[in-house]
Amino acid sequence: MYKVIATDLDGTLLNSDHQIDPITVATLKTLDEQGLQFIIATGRHYCDVAGIRDRLGIRPYLITSNGARVHAPDDTLIHAANLPESTIQRLVAPDVAGAHDRVIVSLFSDDAWLINREAPEMLAFHQESGFAWHVTDLRAHDGVGIGKALYVGDPADLAQIEQRLAHEFGESLYVTYSLPDCLEVMTQGVSKGRALRVVLERLGIAAARCIAFGDNMNDIDLLETAGHPFMMDNANPDLIARLPMVPRIGNNSEAGVARHLRKLFALGDERAL
């Protein structure tokens, strides 16, 4: 019945320390050997996710930057959607991002994570891959080849940025939250769900045969697209309210995705691993 498994990373497949539990590695490898096709769908940068994929030991499709990039298992880029170059200049401007410098601003290009100032606390999210930022003058960037802009800061500051973006750009941008303190911006038409449809069409597999896991607001379209969506117990309350009919499973801190997959595919007691 099931042919494809799509999953978010932070708050979903990764534990509370943003790392991979051994049961998750063992479970995914077993299902991969049984012919299941995996898709990782995340807001993270492609280079970051490629490192995590290598730790998992499988070859999934990679939906990154919330759908602005899609790579095949052999790392071929099969879909890309960039923010308009002129828009980038506005996204990093002080009257949009805030002149107080409390908010960390990042841009994701094809091969780099560009950031406006050092943020060592953010490196804890990238222990599995070793991916790191490059501090640069974002206002001097030409805006070419940027798939995502990211604001990290206090939710109150992010709410103000969100309002400014809505006022200036309306529906020409896709603006979403991956965490309460992470506001993410892509161009119109980008989402994990739309990227999932790109992959399913390439595979020739109906959405009805796809399982998906998520936990936050940037997973809405992913969960609405998959025929068999599941939400983490630790999901954002706003996501739970938005998709009340989606079944909830275990917590990411307890390898909830892996344990649920073991039940769905009758893989037996994980204690035997």
From TrEMBL:
UniProt cofactor(s): Mg(2+)
InterPro entries, per the entry: Cof, HAD-like_sf, HAD-SF_hydro_IIB, HAD_sf
Alphabetically ordered keywords of this record: Hydrolase, Magnesium, Metal-binding
Record bears the keyword Nucleus: no
Protein's UniProt keywords contain Electron transport: no
CDD domains linked to this entry: HAD_Pase (cd07516)
Entry GO MF terms: metal ion binding; phosphatase activity
Gene3D superfamilies: 3.30.1240.10, HAD superfamily/HAD-like
Family statement: Belongs to the HAD-like hydrolase superfamily. Cof family.
The protein, known as: Cof-type HAD-IIB family hydrolase
Organism of derivation: Paraburkholderia dinghuensis
